[in-house]
Every structure is written in C-alpha cells, then in structure tokens.
User: Fold these one by one.
Assistant:
Number 1:
Amino acid sequence: MGFIEVKDLKVHYPIRGGVLNTIQDHVRAVDGVNLTIESGKTYGLVGESGSGKTTIGKTIIGLEKATSGQIFYEGQNVTNKARSRKEKYAAYNKDVQMIFQDATSSMNPKKRILDVIAEPMRNYFSYTPDEIKRKVVDLLEIVGMNEEAMYKYPHEFSGGQRQRIGVARAVASDPKLIIADEPTSALDLSVQAQVLNFMRRIQKEFGLSYLFISHDLGVVQHMSDDIAIMHKGRFVEQGSRKAVYNNPQHIYTKRLLSAIPDMDPTTRHAHKIERQRVEAEYDAQETDYYDTDGRVYDLQNFGENHLVALKPEAPNASLQNEKLNTGGER
Amino acid sequence: MAVERSLLEVNNLQVGFRFGEVYHNAVDGVSLTLKNNEILAIVGESGCGKSTLATSIMGLHDPKNTKISGEVLYKDLNLLDLNEKLYNRIRGNDIGMIFQDPLGSLNPLMTIFNQISEALEYHSDMNEEQRKARVLELLNQVGIPRPEQIMKAYPHELSGGMRQRVVIAIALANKPPIIIADEPTTALDVTIQAQILDLMNDIQDETGSGIILITHDLGVVAETADRVAVMYAGQIVEEAPVEELFANPLHPYTRSLLNSIPHELESDDDELHVIHGTVPSLQKLPRKGCRFAPRIPWIADEAHEEDPVLHEVSPNHKVRCTCWKHFHFEGEEK
C-alpha cells in the first residue's frame, strides 16, 4: 500500500452564464482518478496541455479544492485539508512539497536565497539561526552550489541554478513527497540533465517519492517507476513504466508514443509512416476508446500492474485491433 | 556533380549588441549556405546566437543597438546593405518567417483571412477574388479543416496548433524560396508538433523552398533536417549532413549534448551526462581560443587550436578546433 492514495478524485469547475449568472455546466478538469504513490518511488503523470495533470498535483498539495473523492496520506483522510492549521494535519503539510515549472516566479524576488530556502524550515521546525544557516549550506551543497549563493537574490542566478534552488527549498522541510510540475520544461538540455540528476540523487539520499508531472515522455521515462497517461481529465492507461512504454494498449497512448521524435535520422521515413498509421487508427477507432460523450472509459486490468481504459462490453477489444491491423497491412 | 547554386549565402556574419559603449558579438563569424530544397537545422542551447542569426538575416534587429558586419547574399544582393523599404519587399515575398509563439505573431483584431490576405496585398497585385482563392488554397495546404469558416475566425478562437498552421500559411502566401522557422513547434504538444513537422516536410517537397529551421530540440532535428549546424557561443562548432551528425558526432559539444538526452535508465547509478560549468554571458565570453575549452577542463590545453577554425574532416562534415581528436568524457579513457 502506498503512503499517498488518491481515490476517485474529481475536480470540476463551474461554467457560469446566462442572465442570472447561474451554473450552466462544469469543466471536468479531473474526472475520477485513482492513484497510489509508493514510498521512495517516482510516479510519472503524462498528458498534453489541458489534460488535467497539473490539477491533480495542485489538489494533492491543496492549491485546488477537490470536488469529490479522497486523498489519503498514510491512511489519514487529508482531502482539502492541506491549508488547515490543525495540529493533526501539520505532518501532511510538512511532508508534501512542490517544485514549480517556473522557478523565477515561485520565489520572492526581495528575499535572499538564505531566506527562500529557510522559509519552510522556519515554518515547521524551531531551529536557531545558526542551525538554519548550516542546513541551508548543506542543502545548497546537495544541489551543487556554494555557500556564497546564500546571500544573493533570485535574479542573480541562471534558470538552471534557480530551478536547483527550487529543489533545495522543496527538500528543506524533510518532505516525503515532492510534487514536481514540469520541473525541467523551461531548461536547456544540458541544464535539464543536471536538475534531473540532482532530483534522483536526493531521492536516493532521503528516500523521497516524486509525483513527476510532465508532457515530455522522454523525461518521464527516465525518471519514473510507475506511469499514468492522462487525457480529458481521466487516465487512459496506468501501470509500470515498462508496461506502458513497451506494451501500450490504449490508442491515445500509442498516439503519444509514436509522436515522440525519433533520434535516428536513418529510420525517419519508416517512423513517419508508422506515426501516420497510428494517427489514422486513432481517428478511425475513437468510438472504441471513448464513450458517446467523448469520455474515457473506466480502467480495466490488462496485466500485472497494467490498467487500460477499454470499452466495457468488448473485453477482447485488443483482439479486434489486431484484426484491424492485419487487415490494414495486407 | 554539378555545382549547385546556393539559395542564400551567409559570409562571416557578426552581430554585436551594445552594452554601454562596447559591442559584444552574439553571432561571431558565422558562414553558411542554404541550398534549394533542403532543410538546414541550426541547433544550440539558449544564448548560442541561433535566433539572433535568424533575426539578422531577416533584418529585424534593432539598428540603434546592434552592429552587423559580413554578408547575407541572396540573388546577388547583400541583404545587409538594403534599406528598410527594399527589405520590406524581400521579407514575406522572398523570405517567409515562422516564429515560436503563434499568438504573438498574429494580430488579435484581424480575421484569419485578413492576416493572410495582407501579405498578398503587399507583395502582389491580386484582386479581392484572387486573394480569396489563394487564402483558401493556403488554408487547405496547411491542413486547416473547414477553411471557409476558419477564414472568418479570430486567432483566439483557434487552438495552438491551428494558429501555428495559420502562421505557416502566412509565411507561404507568396511562395517564398526561403523560409526561416524559429522554434516552430516548441510551444506545441508532441502530437501537434509531429503534425506541424510533417507539414513543413510536405511543403518543402511541394515547393522546393529552402528552410532554415532553428531549434534546441535534437529530436526535431533528427526528424526533419537534411543538414545540421550546431552552434555554441555565437559560432558554428560542427556542421554535417543529418545522418552523419547523429551517427558520427565529433565536436565535444555535440557529443555532450547527445549524451544528456534523457533515456530509459539501465541501472540505479545510471546518470545523465552533465556539461561542466555554464555558458558564459556575452560580456564574459572569451574571444580567444576554443570557446568550449572551459567546459572540458580535463582536456589538455595543447589539444585546442590557438585560433580555432572549421576544418572539413570528411566530405561536408566540418568541425571547429582540433580538440575533438583528443576528446573523451570526464573519467573515461580515450
């Protein structure tokens, strides 16, 4: 059993309109999602823009309110309690931290790095100023920066350095789970490598768990143990990294995976044909994978640690696909 | 082999930005040629000068704060000598441009028809009806569904991918022989990116134009380019046909970049390659010697050239400096 469990989470936003500004409908940003994060593991959440992946992260940490469903932290129901000042939720607040995509806007420009990193410690621990300084130096060292950085301001650093400071701040309260929302999307390749390496090193050192949210399938594959692919607020496929990447079943997963650019220019043509075949299949078989309202079906067990959202009436949907595929290749 | 005439030739281009009283070169001696019917990718990380190169070819730099020297030859004209009026006749007509942010390059108050038609009005003497026919043709070409309706829409009514298609339609409006695309898919989701890249390839097949594709994404390069120039700190450090570059990368920077691409982990200790140090700022950039040398300090100074130039090490494969011959990754035996 994982130490964070999300059960049937729904986050709906009302659409208001009409003369009396009444609620006309809802945007179902997250619409019935279950996930379990195991201690010391990384859970990758993949989807295109607007799929609802960020909303899940924000709801776990309490920046958005859940419409229904529950979030359990070590067995305790903490749904919508993240901002609560009650003693019994203090551990949850301390143990779940977040790294944002845009490090610059997530830091107060008027605070020195010392204060940026020390803030969570001041909130949750009663260290003396000297202890805080020592801990900040340690944290900076972990993310590969030296002591001098403490007395500088956020604008004095490069994007990659700021993102590393963001990582250091997230670690400062000794959390157990870090929600990383597109932590490297704004970074160059070589800087991204640096940040990802740091994140993995810290994970090993502190036994951290990550909820790693990203649209970049390559980065998620590199970081994650388990993966969920999200579309239209629901999971289309969920399971171990190997199951999802090597044996994708849902047409949307196949479509996403086939769209990843191929690093080998010599197979470019074959890759393009394959991608367009999957794209055509996606258009043709949409009704097999989405119900009449365009909603993703419920997840079904497909194999060990592998769930796929398939049409309920046709348990042998994959068989049908095979028939179609062979028909197309003839 | 017949001598292919190049479409666009850039010779020793230097673009300097003013910092107080001094100018620092962001593009420092770049020479390249673009041939008909090819996609030339220019790849590098932020600050390497790749976008500056594009804007100076288009004459879009701020003349008060930039100093440009060198040549950009197109049809026996040096574009850098043109005045604004003449440049305007080249831009859009001979060189089309596609920018990264489609929303920023479209006018929010103009319908899609008017935006595309504007380019036609400026550069041709088509009448209203001909323009309408051409706009429809363009929207079909870039794969926009229901073009009759979309023509009347405003940019905010379209999705990101559709907007980028409109931007491409504008760039194509006058059938320019040259297209410069600056990070055309960076703001888009992977599935949309794949569609836009396919579209660019199709357009190139159809029109035979030469495309300069500026990107930081090596995957995009591998999928679309015919030839690649890798830029670091204002200079081209390696240039090769795309298959050659990926099969046989030589410059330490190219090799390091390829090594830092995230991949599936083989073991728990498996780490991504990190390039030592950081890219120096323009003011602090060493102008003498190999610019990549500070990033590979474990390589002996003697390995570098005193004044590194591009060497053609095999046909069409050029590498700057001599350090590549002695390069090995840190902690690795050569």
Note: Chain B touches chain A at residues 45-46, 160, 189-191, 193-194, 197-198, 201, 216-220, 222-223, 225, 242-243, 246-247, 256-257, 260-265, 268, 271-275, 278 (CB under 8 Å).
Number 2:
Amino acid sequence: MRLTCLGERNGVVEAGEPACHLLEICDTRLLLECPLDLSALSYFLPTLLKRPEMVLSSNTKATGYDLKHGDAKTSSIPSRNYEPEHAYEHGSSSHIKRQKLLSHSDADGVASHLLCGLMRDWNAVNGSSPYKELDGQILIEAEPWYKTADLGLVDIPLLDAVIISNPIGMLGLPFLTRHPEFSAKIFATDATTKCGQLLIEELLSSHNEYVQLYGRSSIGKAPPWLELKHIAKLPSNIKDALYGVNGSTRANWHPIYSVADVRECIAKISRLHYGEEASVDGILVLKPSSSGFGIGASNWAMTVPWSRLTYIATSMRKSGSAMGLNLSALKGNQILLLSDLQASKMSNANPLATFQKTIGGDVDDPRASKKGSLRIRAQRFWPRRSAIGSTSQPSGDIISKQIQPCTVSPLISAEPLQATAMGSTEGTPQLQSVTSGRFLDVKWSETDIKESISTLAKEVKSAVSAGGCVLIPISPSGLIFELIEEIALELRSATVGHIPMFYVSSAAEELLAYSNIIPEWLGPSRQEKLYAGEALFGIAGLLKEKDLIPLHSLQTPEFLKLWQEPCVVFAAHWGLRMGPAVHLLHRWGKNMDNMLVLLEPSLDIQLALSPFQPLAIQVLRLAVISGLRPKEVPWVIEKLQPMFTLVPEFLQQSLSLNTEVRNPTSMHFYSSRQSVFLQDFPEEMQVEMSPELAANLKPKQLKTGKLTVAQLTADLCTKDGHWSLQMPKSSKNSLGSSQKYGCCWGVVNVLALVTALKDCGLSDLSVTKIDNDQSINLGNSPLEEVLNFDKVFIEIYSPSPASLAITSKATHISSDDPALRHLVTDAVSRSLERF
Amino acid sequence: MKIKCVPLGAGQDVGKSCVIVTLGGKMIMFDCGMHMGYQDDRRYPDFYRISKIGDFTQAIDCIVVTHFHLDHVGALPYFTEVCGYEGPIYMTYPTKALAPLMLEDYRKVTVERKGEQEQFSALQIQQCMKKVTAVDLRQTVTVDNDLQLRAYYAGHVLGAAMFYVKAGDSTIVYTGDYNMTPDRHLGAAQIDRLRPDLLITESTYATTVRDSKCAREREFLKSVHKCIDDGGKILIPVFALGRAQELCILLDDYWERMNIKAPIYFSAGLTMQANVYYKLLISWTNQKVKDTYVTRNTFDFKHVSPFDRSEMDAPGPCVLFATPGMLSGGLSLEVFKHWAPSERNMIILPGYCIAGTVGHKLMSGKPTRIELDKRTQIDVRCQIHHLSFSAHTDAKGIMDLVRHVDPRHVILVHGEKPKMATLKNRIMTELKIPCFYPANHELVEVPSHCIFKVDLSNRFVMHHLIDDVNDSQNSQNLSAPMDDMLETADGSSSIRNASSYSLPPTQVRTHVEGIAVNENSLRIKILHPIEAQACLADMKHDVSFSCFQTIFVEANGHGRLVDIGEKTILHSLYLELVKWVGNAVSREEDCIIGGSFCMRLCKGSVTQNGSEGQSESEFNHGIKDRDIGDSISCNPSSSRQKIEVECNWCYEDNSLANRVMGILRTLNLKLQQCLITGSSQCKESTNYHRY
C-alpha cells in the first residue's frame, strides 16, 4: 500500500486547502478527494481595474438589461451608492427601498473606489504588473483562476477510482473529469453529489457574473500573473502561498470549467447510500459511512483481499443536523488513514504581509502619504497587534517603507484559540469584542454547536434591532439550514417588526427545497420529525410566510420587488471575491450598524477584507471548525483499534507527547508530496472453493500421518470483490507446475516413463531392474513387475546415448545432448505419480 | 447446511404475511402481518409455533418488514408489545414513518367504529415503532457478525423493499410485494443478480398477464370525466397510502390539462397527513417525480382539498378519496350510503377487496340492493367501476425477477393455491429451478449452497496475482523457460524476456496451481508449491543430471595445454562464464559451482592426442569417443585444442545448467600469454565462434 499526499498542507483543514491523497492499494489507484484551494481565491481583486476591450460589450449588455427591468427611479439614482449616507436611512424598517444594487455603474463604483488613491501598482516602474498592492496586501488583478491539489503527480489514465467524501472535495472534480484520458469511476454519496453539484454550479454562476461585469482578463493563454518574471518579484510569503515552495504548484492553477464540464462530471459519479457497497474493478470494495461533517459527508471502509482500510475524511465528533460520526461501521480494519485534521495551531493562512518597497526620488509621494493616512484610519476601526514594523526609515532620498496593515487575525488567533484547538478551554464560545468598530470572534467549538449558533443569532438580532443589515456570506451546506432556523426564531422575538431573510445564491431555491427531502441523511433528532410527519427543517414554513426569500441573484426582477432593508442576507461568496456577497459588502461596509458574519475558518480576514477598506461594519467571526481535533485522534484510534495508523506529520509531536495512545498501533506520518509505504500484510487471504472443485481434489494422506495433501489446479475468480476458486476452464497440463517451481514430487512410474519416452521417438532403449541385488534386464518393454523395485536403469542408445538411474526417491539423468536431456526430463516429470 | 422455511401466514393465501426462515444458525421473521378477512385469533400468525414457551427474543434473531401494508406489518405491535419480542426489527425509512399511520388507522376503525376490543393501544404502536431500526436502500446492515441484510427497491408502495439476507454462508432473498413496472409515482423493482440459495417471492398474480397500464388509465380518466360532466359525484374508497397518491397524481394532472373545475377531495385526517409524508420521502419515488421537488413537489396537489362532512350532500360534481378502502366502514361507507342510490354517481373500486366487505359484494356481480347490517339496506343504483391498478407484478414480472436473481431454489408465498401451482410448474420447466409453495405451517427444507472456505497463502497469491517485477527479473537470470532452452543457450532470449514487462493482471479469471494441505482436518490451506516443500519433504523426488561437454581452446601457439595447467584453464573458463551469467556461478579450488551445479575438468588432464580435424569430427559425433580420448587434447601444431568438462546438477538448477551448457558449447576459449604465464592481472580476450 502506498499513500501520497497531494495537498500542500499535509491534510490540515484550517489552512484552507482540504486534503487530497493518492492511495495505491492492491494495484488499484484511488484519488481521495479532489478539492480546490479556496483560500487562494482571496488573492484576486474583486474587480478588474483595467478593463479589457470586450468588457464594453458586456457592459452595454448590462445596461440593456437595466433599461428593460429597472424602473425610471432606479436608473435615475446616481451610481455612487457606495457612499453609506446615500445608500439607505435607518429606523424606517418598513420603508421598502427599491434600489439597484448591482449594475454597470456598480462595477464602475467598485473600480473607482479602489482607484481613489488607495491602489498602486505593485511594480511602480512597470505599470503593467498584474499584481497590485492594496491596503498592504498584494492582490492579483485578473479573472480568478482556481488552484487544485497536485494532480500532476497523478497518472490520470491509470486512475481507477476517485472518492469524494464531501461537497468541498468535489469542487476540483470537473478539472479532472475533463481530462480526455480520465476513465476512473467516481464514488460519492447521493447527498454529497447533490450538494456538490449545487456548490459547483454556484461557483460557475458567480464566476460568470464576474465575467459579465468585468470581462475576461485573458482568454486561451496563460495569464500574466502566472508568468515567472512577475512571480519572481513577489515577496516570498505570497509566492509560497500562491505557487508553493519553489513555484512547484504553479501548474495547479486552472481557468474555470465550463457548464458542459460540470454536467459530464456529475453524470460520471456513482451515487451511493450510506452503507452501500460498491466495488472498484472487482478487487476493492468501498463502503461509505456517515462522518458527521454535513449532509451526505462520509468516511470510507475499503476492503481488498489482503487487508481492510479505514479512510477518515473530514469528520466531526458532534454533528449538527446531519447524521453523526459513525465509527462502529469502520471497526476492525487494519489500516487507519486520518486526513483533514484540524491544525493544532490556528494557522493564519497568510502571515503578515510585510514587505519593503523602494520608491526612487520622490519623497513626497502623494500615494505614500495617503497610504499613511489610511493606516491611521484603519487603526481607528481595526485593532493592531503591536507596533512592529510601523516605523518608516528614510535613508537618503530613498524611502524604505514597511507597511504594517491593519491586523485582524493575530488578535483572533494567538493563545486562546490555540488553546481551544487543543481542547484545554472547551466550553462556552469565546467572544472578543473590540472597541470602536466591533470585532467579534466566536470560536466554534464542537461541543456546543447549538450554543454557538444561538450566540450568533443573538448578535444578528441585536444588529438588526439597531437598524442594521446583516450579511452572512455562506456556501451551500447543511449549516445554513440550522442558521436560518435559529435566526428566524430570534427575529421573531425581536420587536422591530418584520425583518425578512434573503438567501441570495444560484443554489438558493434548490437547496432550500432539498432540505426537506433528505430524512435519510439526518441525525436521529431530525429523523424524529419525519416520523412525526413534520417538515425536517423550519424552512418550509418560513418560505411560505415570506420570512425567508430565496433569490437567484441580485439581478432578478424578484429582487427589485422584494428587497427590503434592514434585512438578514445569506449570500453566496467565493473568498469574498465573487458572488452577491461582494456587492452587498460593498454597499453596507461603511456603516457601523451593519454586521458581517464570517463563517469560514480558512478565510484570512485581513486579506479578504483588504479591497473593501476602509470598513466600518461590525465583523463577527464564527469559525466553523471542521475536522477532528488532534486530541480526538487517540480516541478514534482507541475506538477503531487499527494495526497501522497514518496521520499527518504535524501531529507527530502532539501525539508522541500524548500518553493516551497506549494501544499497540504503529503510527506512520505522512507529509505532502511524499509517499508512505506500508507492507502488505502477512494475513492469509480467505476465498471460497466451489463444491465441484472440492469434489475433484484427490487428497492423499502423507506417511507422517496428520497431513493430507492434494494437487490443486483451479481458476481464481473474482466478482465484486468476492474471490473464489472454481473449476479450471482451460485444460492446461499440470506439468507446468513442477517446471516452474523447480521441484518434483512423487514416485516415478517406470511403465509410464517408458511409454512417454517411446512417444518421443526414443524407442531404442533397454530397462534393467535391480531388485534385492539381482539385476534383471527387461528389454525395452517392461511389464508390471517394474512397479516394485529398488533401482531401475534405463539406457537409451539413439539418437545419442543417455542413461537414467531411478530409485523411489531420486532419478539421475546422464546425457550430453541438450535436446535429448530435455525430452527425457520432460518424460520423467510427466510420469511422476504425485499424490 | 439446510435452510428451513415455514410460512406462518400467506402460505397458499393472501394476508398475514409472515415467513420464518432458519439459515446459517439464524432465525429470521420476514413480515409480521395480519389477515383482514378474520376477526378472531386467525387474524394473527400463530407465533407460538416459533417458541412454545413464548421466548421469542431468544428464538428470533431479527424481524424484517418489507412495507407498511397491514397484511405485512399489522401484527407487529401485537408481537412486540403483547407477545414480548424485544429483538431487532428492520424496515426502510418510509415504512417506519408510514406504518404507524396504517396501524393507528386500523386500530381506530376496529375500536371506534366496529366497537371491538382493541388488540393494541396507540401507545403500544409508538413503543413498537421505537424499537425499529430504519435502513436505507442498498445499505448493508450488519445485525451481528454472521448476519447481514440489505434492502432493494421493490416499487410496490412507497418504501417497499426486497431484502437480501446473508447468514453465515447461506443467502436468501425475500421479495415482499413488488412491482416490475413503474407507475405514476414509483419506480420498478431493482435488484442485483444475487444468486441466493433461496428466493421467496410473492405470487399474487401468478397467472395473470396484464396489458398496458396506459389504456387502463385512459379508460379510468374517461369515465371519471364523463361522470363529472354529467354532474355526478365520484367516490373512490382507498387506503390512505399508496393507491390514493397514485390516482391523485393522475387526476391532478388530468384536471390541469383539461381545465376541470370540479373539486377533488381527500378525506381530511389521514390522507392529507399521508401527503406530508410523501413530500418528505420524495426521494423514494421514481425519477420523474423526484425531479419536481424544486419547482413544485408533486405531492403538493393543486386541485385537491380536504373534505368536510357538510359537503357530502352539497350539490355539484366532485371526486372524493375516502378511507378505508374496500368500503369496510368509516367515512367511505358513510359516503357510500349517501351517494349509492343516485344513478349519476359513481363508485370506483381500485384494487383487491377481501371477502366479507361491501367492496367485495359490489365487485362480485351487479347488486341492486346491499344489506349493510340487519337493519340497513341500501339501493345501489350508481355506476360501479373496478380498476385493476394493482401494484403487484404479474406472472411475467415474477418470471423475469426469478430469472434475473438466479436463485438455487424458489418458494412461492402470498398467492392463491391453484395459480401458484401453475407458476411453480412454469418455474420448474422453464427455468429448471426447484420450486415450492408450502401451505401455512408447512416446512420446506432446501440445501444451502455448499461453500468451502480455504486460506490462500500469501506466496501463492503473490505468485499468481501480482507479477512482482522484482521477482520476474530475478527469475530471468536463473530460470529461462525450458521450452526456449536452445535459444537461451546463446544468452539472447533472457534480454528479450526482461523487456516484456507485464502489467498487473486485472482479468476476472486467473489460472492457478498449488498444493492443498489439510492438517488435522482444520481449514484447507492452499500453498505455493515451493512453500509446500517443507511439509512434502518425504514426497520429494530428486532429479539430478550429469553430462560431459567438449570445449575448444586456443592457446595461440603458446605451447601445450599440458603446460598451461588445469587451474588456469578453469579460471579463464570461470571468467568467461561470469560474463554471461554473472555471480550465479562461483569458483572453487578445482571446480565451478552455482547452487547444485558443479563443473570440473575431466581427469586425465592434458594429452597430445587429437588434431583439429579430429576434434571437429569428435564433436560432431558427440560423446561417443569420450572414453577413448583424454579430456584435454592438444595439438601443438594447431592453435585449437579441446578439453572436456564434466557437469552435475540437480533439477532445481536445471535452467542455470542449461544456460551454462549452451555457453560452453559455443565457446572458443582463447588463452593469452599473460594468462598462461599466470599473471592474473592481465585480461584475456575471447571471441565466440558460432557453429
């Protein structure tokens, strides 16, 4: 068995890139998951500054759209709606505003907003650099590309199967399936396939919206930001984050897939139920079981004739509404592969962007000074860790400036979070509020998901009560159902009148409808609702009463009809770079009453928010920690009792310190782009023997007594991972065996030998039998009496002389002619009476 | 191992399905139904046949319920709550959700309307359902180490399933009721080719071959439409679940298309409640219905509203779905009393009606007056339609299923005796599968498929399935195939073999050879022949070889071989062989060995006899002249001289020996001065002479 970790980050969940492995077992090559590194999306600008020519056409198209759908009022509203003062008024919640949020002018707005002195080219000398520096972050100005795991290490035509455990693991799948030589089977649970499809389609529609607004930055050729000459100038931390150490992951970037790619990809997936067995090439049998990570999310038991392997993908010990982690279905397997573990340290996906920039000559660079003022403004709203690097060091006429942008994440991370991750301060969610421009961080600890959600709901309620709007960027998953339910409950108790909830996503309608037809994938408490004949989630009622309104996008006529502020909006987002969340954040960001809720632990807040600075909106971070925590690893091992355990390398220390691992499992540690080998096990393979074959065996008792032995010639057959010995179809002579294995058994039947020799044309021979020291010449046609003998000599005279001396235990052949020797040997081995 | 099967119900009968099967040391109860035709003890299966003392939990390993119809689940609360069974119970999610509805409905009808004593309470139904484990389709459920079961889609009603059970080595498929053709909301039954030891199948329509469903649907809709146009009221007595939804989809769709305004009513309580369940469980319907869930759930009927009793005598046409089916009581019978006397109205009876019910009376003949009880009589003037919209498969479907599943034995249940006999004969003659149709309490024993479990040793498996590259490379050097022996002799074929890298075999069938060993009558173990050597030591037959070979030597006029000395010749021979076979051979004091292979110069050493001509002829005549000549002959005038070597080896090293012999035969050994003078640092040169 061989395991190769294809991800850059050793299967650490929080770093953003879910694990991806290549598993070779029993001559079967399996790809475990095919995710995208979504954290890399944050490095793109949410807009294009330099519009390519073709944008104009899409722009006019958008204008045409406006004229058709927008009323006179809409088109007369000036496009500068990013100014909070103009955007909306407070207090009058019943006042329905029909404002155009998104139009060509909005695109202009974003661009001009970014340009107003905040943005400068990363490379001042060469203005054409695709990298821009903004608010101390370096961002790519280009149409987003997507980063997969190291699929270059996979020989795609030789891949036998792809296993997808959760929707996140499916995002990169169309990149794989569109490969012309891809022929592997894909396995995922039915619900994972459905949710994954919605997720992929949402990505596609968000991307298409981006293209429609800003145009494509490059078509059919490698974009400039992937060119080595530009990459070389980047500071190393960004370089590593985007292109891996030494630029090794530069080839992992792909342009977006097409609708057809996705359709084909989805059609190729074999959809399974929990506990349904599926076989790969008839050798390996797969069986998914629930992992607790979400609706349809699964772990896998794999059985090959020699061994059984448990693959634990992203799992949660205590799940929300989805069916819980089921370890009992995985018991008794020898190998345990743990991936997607929560990092022991809350990793900041992006270390502080500290870099130096030299500006020749111009000391009073207006942009530089503006930068400074921005910093001060940012400090007002955003906490800063310390004063590191905030000093500027003028040296001669060269300004060497260290830019220390507003830092958010250090505050969140640091000690308390790490402690939570290690489990020492479990319990109530930790809230950290920050003076002026509140920044809240609720750590999602698994023991109290419900509590965390209700904390969130209360925060939402208070924000809405104060007349603000709440934006919750979220991707389609089971989590959204629980959030909606809880927030709706809180809103109902609020005294501010009717506050609608919107879910803006291309997947909205389908996902909400889907929530009500999946009882098989939910936990026991939700299943009770099925048996009671109630809706599984409270969503159906909310939809009916128009408390919750699904919107396909912000460009639909329904939007204009139904939009109302203040409101709570769940919106699709991709690293806060694409999708409706971007437009809404842009609209609401300047008002302190509004609230932004960030749920993804992999999101680097500082980086993600940098294009939107300055922001006044309250930010509530509720990191939904997925994956088992390191301290739960011993518990899993204890439960499953494997012989071998494969865990990511970063756990090596914490596990060796942990005295809980007492059971005799042998630990192996894997790290990215390295293979771990495990020897196949000395366990014997059990197969079935067909009754016909068993009846055909002719066992012989050996003289020593206990043993009976029989020669076996059979066909080893396999069907759906089930092995059996059947009657041989081809009638191959069993002669082969003695030659192949260089060994003979039995006693020579002299009669048969002489016949065999004669059949070869060696009839010129004589047989001499020595019995009780008497030599009897039997001529060339021995009779029955040769059956009992001490020793027999056979002399062959032509074509060349040869002689055989045969006893019951041994035969000696003397011949100088190789061809003759071959014939004689053949005859002897054929006339051996075996058992 | 035998599989024992006893039907406690539904043997040569329809109703109270309950089949006890013992296989692989496990006892399983399939279905636990009640008989609707009886009001006494006969309504339940005779459970005390399972255990005389009534310890059912001990006796039965698990209960499997295929679907929520009362004749399959009706006796379950009685069995668990009254008889005290506490073991595991398995059914699909929809069955678990819907069975309590059916049971509760039945309880109400018997207690509240008929005034009988209840067999179980509402609370007992709930308690019973709590003990049920819900399973998903195709989910392999492990009951205990030796017992596994798996549900397959059966299509009969929502959540109906066939169950595959494996206990030890014995396997069985119990179909429950199933439908091989899709209907308005359900798909067709789907099952794998499982080849079980025993298939227990329903045979409700054992001889019927049904025509196309479309025609019947059209006819149904036409008569409904006509009746509505005439201002009539239509009563459709149905069970709350299944048929009601199917007909409703049909009518709702028709209403939409034809723009009919007449209302469709569902009798309030149960049927409307059932629709909620259908909406939640839409993933158990057929693909077409499943696809509608986003836009409008198929079970959100547009034209359907709940029925209020006040509308019973309201004017104007309408359609009413009322429970219970078969007009056995409740609302449907009440409405029937009101509507039956009018000629404009219509009663549609979908499906089967059990003897003794009003529905049965209506179906048999065309009665004009029906006696409900001693006091009430009803004039029946309305139109009566019977719809055979049965969700059971027909004879062809049963045959198709049996052929597809390919069992070793078939048992028919859930049917009528004469029809079952006909079907049995068909299965025996057409499919050549032994078939039985036991009556209730009649035992059928069938042999279970005999399987021998054997262990394959690792080496055996590796050898046959994994063509280890290393292994084959090693063997290239040591054992060239015997058949290629002559070719191998010049050393060329080994290179060719090494290049033929073989991909891992993925074929379904691999020819294998090995030794089956059985020690102390424990498990049979299959060994690789080499592994078997240890235990077969006294069976071994040693085959050994010896031969003489002539070698030509050129000493390039550096004197006679006698002077050169045996050791030098041997050494240069050795150096020559190493070139070809590598370290497979090594040099000892007076011989070259490689495993059991041993080569030495013949005694008698070096003489002056023989010339080149002679040696040629001697070679051509082979070894005949061996005894006359000494092994190393030398002609001082000629540079070519010959020596003779003797080789011995055992069978194991046959291939090495064959290679060496091949090399020797074509060898033209050149001894150079330096070598002759004994300087070992000097390199000798040789060339090969092909004869």
Note: Residues 190-214 of chain A form the longest helix (25 residues).
